[in-house]
Amino acid sequence: MSRGRTKDVLTDCWYAVAPAADVGTDLMATRVAGRPVVLGRTASGALLALEDRCAHRPYPLSAGRVVGETVVCGLCGFGYGGDGACVSVPTQPHVPRGARVDAFPVVQRHGLVWVWVGTPGRSGLARVPDLPWLDDDAWADTGGVLDVAAGVLLLLESFADVTQVPVVAPDISPVVLQAAPPPLEVVVTETTVALSRQFPPGPLPAWQAAALDLPGEQRLPHDQRGLFLSPAAWVDHWDVTLPGGSQARMRFTQLVTPVDGTHTRLLWRVSRDFAVADEAVSERFSVMFADYYRRVAAALQTQQRVLDTDGPGREVNVSADAAALKVRAIVRQLLTEQPS
Amino acid sequence: MATTTLREAEGDLVVESAMTVADGVVALTLADPNGQPLPPWTPGAHVDLIMGPDLVRQYSLCGSPSDSRTIRIGVLREPHSRGGSAYVHDRLSPGTTVRVRGPRNHFPLVASPRYLFVAGGIGITPLLPMMAEATAAGAQWSLLYGGRTRSSMAFTDELERYGDQVRLAPQDEVGLLDLDALLGTPQPDTRVYCCGPEPLLAAVEARCAGWPAGTLHLERFAAKPVSAPAGAEHAFEVELAQTGVTLTVPADRSIFDVVQEAGVSIIGSCLEGICGTCETFIVSGEVDHRDSVLSDEEHEANETMMICVSRCRGDRLVLDL
Fold this sequence. Notes:
The complex is a heterodimer of chains A (340) and B (321). Helix content of chain A is 20%, strand content 33%. Chain A is α+β, with helices and mostly antiparallel strands and 340 residues long. In chain A, the strands form four sheets. Chain A has a seven-stranded antiparallel sheet with strand order 11-17-16-15-14-13-12, covered by helices on one side. Chain A starts with 14 loop residues before the first strand and ends with a helix. Chain B is of the alpha/beta class and 321 residues long. Chain B has eight helices and 19 strands. Chain B has a six-stranded antiparallel sheet, with helices on one face. A five-stranded parallel sheet of chain B has the order 10-9-8-11-12, sandwiched between helices. Chain B has a five-stranded mixed sheet with strand order 14-13-19-15-17. In chain B, strand 8, helix 2 and strand 9 form a beta-alpha-beta unit. Chain B is globular. At the A-B interface, strand 12 and helix 5 of A face strand 1, strand 7 and helix 2 of B.
């Protein structure tokens, strides 16, 4: 049966590889879909993303430095422009003909650096997902980056699983998640999956009541949405309707980059449109959600270990897994459209 | 009551422009009324236009997948229209809204080093984004595009940039498409994508009989029902090959229920055709697939089925249970 979890890595996708603020003239080494990538900015501020291996000898360019508009190898001194072409070598006046490294399409959007390591020409036909709350001053966010020793589909399926949060993190889980769940609606298109549930009024978890300055026992309606926007982005909405009718909204932006078939980088942001200027809330959320995502990562790594040790096995799915199964199907379909 | 419902996205879009692009062909661009981005899609995708309770038509997307703001469709006014194309031409002027469901894709462009595209008339629409995609992917391709007359052939201006990769063949100038020359000899590493009227599809299918299995991809642009019409159910027999028993599935019960009742160990979960848990290998028999899990291709392959909702077209199925 063909609906299992593929281990093939989708290269033809825009992946959010780093916060824009972390990418500067100090070069950064990363891996995206099996390719070594050096990220940085030239002296003029232009982003560059090159194959992280000098064309001369097996040495990472990320161990070199930016000189003007070029990257210079830290071992042999070969210099490369942002287009990957070798532009200077220290020992001779002319550059070896055709010497170059791969240059990857790279853009900055929503405060993040996105890289495309797949079929070069296809990058212009694909989209970076729309994450407007990350650019909006009416929202405050906190976030981090985690390296997770688990395949990217395990992460996406975990985000699609509405039952995991109260199990992984019972201490901070919204109280309404622990009661009988309301009906789940899953809405699909060719390439996206959206799930949603409306909870009847219930009490807030202590951390959210404190941030909103509301008594915890007050019962308020909650709306949950989960959105698979692309194989690089899963976003959760968690909106509470306040006594006056306005909403206190949260966005959990989970951006995943496959490092290889069994390793994934998770770049997460937790955004809120309440207590925006309250630094104590930011600090508390920062610590609390960093801990939450570490626990999510630990559970994912355990799953990957079981797969590695005992193989894929047969899995029982429940109807609530419709979203996760659709995510698998979309990724599988996109893989067939990707040139090998 | 179902605890999980699965459905396709559906919403009202506003007609941003409606332009006549060939004799009897209008190109519509549609956008979200609030300017929200539209979901990504890939070449070959189509949407349903829901113009009334019994007036639902499928149209291929023929703009660029990189455009997050609008989608574009091309619609031929059918002389024998049962209402769909006439509604589009007569009623969908700029500023009006129309209900749209999808997109979905039953005609995806599988990666390949080479493609042959064959279009007949308005069948050019799904192929337009495919040619852009094939170009972006660095594939070699050519298009043979037939139509009644040159002025009836839409989007020829957008094909000019491809130079001699594109051959236009208006029937009143050059006669019928020379499919023998194009498809007579199977070519290595080449996929054939064809969309057009039924006689063209049948002719291409016949010429491709000697090509490797799976290399021909067809899309029928005539309106087709999205799911099989719900006729009266009938009873049928199910033989369980491993167990060695034959059971009768009455018209009002599922295969799953009958098999489980017979004491055979099977697992099912949602029993709504959503979760895929009860997937079962088919030994023989023609299945009436009704699940939401398997793709059209998988349905056609007839290798496995979801025994909670799917049934039998004939009167006997043999399952690997």
